[in-house]
């Protein structure tokens, strides 16, 4: 019996043990506290400061305390107008690491220390950059996305004005072979120039796209340089009203930073689209599509304004009434390339809307001898005129519309034509009064007016004038024959000449007054009357 009892005890023990284990797995069992990873390092002043440094995990109740503190700290810090507060918000919200926050704070302190040691122009240039960042922070516009470009500008200026020679206006540089191009704007320091930066990247990407299409040009593609440029410049963009914007961080004209340019956005989109088609990097396609948002929003957040036939894309987001021809042309070209290279219906729609307006603008910006820079504005310089002619030729190649093809050839022809001078004839020129010389010129020119005669040069004027009617006053030094010569040299060089002979006459002499002769009969009667009065006999 004992052996039988002993052999039956073991199965019952095992069964009991299994039941106990299963009971412990029920929902009513006591669970240990959850362990949550601890932020490293813990933010100063947070509830996690009281935990031992080696404790890498925190209990759930401490996590709840920490989250409440974090929300309150972010709300409190966001109210502060300082640059330091903007950096702390970026770190508390997890957008930058504590190490990066410390590095940016060091850059900010270094800039303020350096500017205090500088004098004169160097002090003023760096002070402007510091003041711009401080103003952005005070307006709560120093967002996380803008930290990278603004602090790049800050570091570049801090080092440059403390060590480099004084630059000339318009000086450009790319420190440490950075794809980002900086330009010197007197009074505003060295500023990031997004158009120049993306223009260079666009040329690199264009060479790689051409190499892809033509096996004979493969040696022109530099894939490493293209990837470096597109990635670096994309990282310097910022979110603006929901799209990727390549902003300017200095005041220009009537605009305050940050502002955007349709020409810059289009050039960036074109470069990213070319890079995507050449190498297939999806991140470049996403960046290009995100940047399209600028063309869907009106100023000041975007650059789209209504125009006859569609929309005009602004050169400056802060100037909705300033329609610049070359900027609008490049915007349309960039959108067309994005539509073709990315197979984007969105880009295609934006292109169609802009192209319809551009088609109508061509005649408006054509003076018949030169081009206008902006709507109802001044004539373009030679560089801008050549740029317009090139853009029109590019549109001709892309859309094959006669309006662009003929205008491109016509604008190019204007560069080889001399300025036309129309001189109003001079009649009845007299030496004793001032005469008006009236003439018109066909394009902006440097004009020289000379009049000379036997007595030498009597008029010499040098003028820089726009197209239209001009008048000058001239008083001849005496009678005789004179030569009038007008030369006008347009921006591209050919010289227009108009020469006339002028005859200056003496004034007609005033007629002499004739003495009145009395008739003899009347004289006799008058004589008789006087004799009778005197008592004399006739």
Automatic annotation (TrEMBL):
<feature type="domain" description="D-glucuronyl C5-epimerase C-terminal">
    <location>
        <begin position="246"/>
        <end position="411"/>
    </location>
</feature>
<dbReference type="InterPro" id="IPR039721">
    <property type="entry name" value="C5-epimerase"/>
</dbReference>
<dbReference type="InterPro" id="IPR010598">
    <property type="entry name" value="C5-epim_C"/>
</dbReference>
<protein>
    <submittedName>
        <fullName>D-glucuronyl C5-epimerase family protein</fullName>
    </submittedName>
</protein>
<feature type="region of interest" description="Disordered">
    <location>
        <begin position="488"/>
        <end position="538"/>
    </location>
</feature>
<feature type="region of interest" description="Disordered">
    <location>
        <begin position="34"/>
        <end position="56"/>
    </location>
</feature>
<feature type="compositionally biased region" description="Basic and acidic residues">
    <location>
        <begin position="518"/>
        <end position="530"/>
    </location>
</feature>
<dbReference type="GO" id="GO:0047464">
    <property type="term" value="F:heparosan-N-sulfate-glucuronate 5-epimerase activity"/>
</dbReference>
<dbReference type="Pfam" id="PF06662">
    <property type="entry name" value="C5-epim_C"/>
</dbReference>
<dbReference type="GO" id="GO:0015012">
    <property type="term" value="P:heparan sulfate proteoglycan biosynthetic process"/>
</dbReference>
């Amino acid at each position: 019996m004992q052996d039988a009892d002993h052999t039956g005890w073991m199965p019952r023990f095992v069964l009991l043990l299994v039941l106990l284990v299963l009971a412990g797995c029920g929902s009513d069992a006591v669970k240990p506290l959850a362990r949550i990873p601890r932020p490293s390092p813990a933010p100063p002043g947070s509830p996690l400061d009281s935990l031992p440094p080696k404790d890498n995990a925190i209990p759930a109740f401490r996590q709840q305390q920490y989250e409440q503190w974090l929300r309150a700290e972010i709300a409190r810090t966001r109210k502060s107008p300082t640059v330091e507060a903007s950096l702390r918000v970026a770190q508390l919200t997890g957008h930058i690491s504590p190490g990066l926050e410390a590095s940016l704070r060091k850059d900010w302190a270094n800039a303020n220390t350096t500017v205090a040691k500088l004098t004169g122009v160097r002090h003023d240039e760096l002070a402007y950059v510091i003041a711009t960042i401080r103003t952005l922070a005070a307006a709560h516009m120093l967002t996380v996305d803008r930290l990278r470009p603004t602090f790049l500008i800050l570091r570049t200026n801090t080092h440059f004005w403390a060590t480099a020679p004084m630059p000339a206006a318009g000086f450009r540089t790319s420190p440490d072979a950075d794809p980002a191009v900086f330009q010197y704007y007197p009074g505003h320091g060295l500023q990031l120039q997004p158009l120049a930066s993306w223009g260079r990247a666009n040329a690199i990407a264009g060479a790689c796209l051409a190499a892809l299409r033509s096996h004979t040009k493969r040696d022109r593609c530099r894939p490493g340089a293209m990837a470096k440029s597109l990635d670096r410049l994309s990282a310097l963009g910022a979110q603006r009203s929901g799209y990727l914007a390549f902003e300017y961080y200095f005041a220009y004209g009537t605009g305050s930073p940050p502002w955007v340019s349709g020409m810059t956005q289009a050039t960036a989109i074109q470069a990213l689209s070319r890079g995507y088609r050449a190498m297939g990097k999806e991140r470049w396609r996403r960046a290009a599509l995100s940047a399209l948002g600028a063309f869907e929003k009106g100023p000041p957040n975007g650059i789209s304004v209504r125009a006859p036939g569609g929309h005009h894309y602004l050169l400056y987001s802060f100037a909705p009434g300033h329609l610049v021809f070359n900027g609008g042309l490049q915007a349309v070209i960039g959108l067309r390339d994005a539509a073709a290279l990315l197979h984007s219906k969105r880009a295609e729609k934006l292109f169609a809307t802009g192209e319809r307006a551009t088609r109508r603008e061509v005649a408006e910006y054509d003076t018949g001898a030169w081009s206008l820079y902006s709507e109802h504005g001044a004539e373009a310089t030679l560089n801008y005129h050549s740029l317009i002619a090139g853009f029109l030729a590019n549109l001709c190649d892309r859309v094959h519309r006669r309006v662009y093809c003929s205008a491109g050839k016509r604008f190019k022809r204007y560069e080889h034509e001399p300025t036309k001078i129309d001189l109003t004839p001079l009649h009845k020129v007299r030496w004793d009064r001032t005469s008006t010389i009236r003439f018109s010129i066909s394009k902006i020119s440097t004009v020289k007016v000379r009049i000379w005669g036997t007595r030498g040069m009597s008029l010499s004027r040098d003028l820089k004038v726009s197209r239209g009617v001009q008048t000058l006053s001239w008083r001849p030094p005496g009678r005789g024959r004179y030569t009038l010569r007008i030369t006008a040299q347009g921006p591209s060089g050919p010289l227009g000449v108009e020469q006339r002979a002028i005859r200056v006459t003496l004034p007609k002499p005033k007629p002499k007054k004739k003495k009145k002769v009395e008739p003899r009969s009347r004289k006799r009667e008058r004589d008789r009357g006087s004799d009778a009065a005197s008592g004399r006999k006739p």
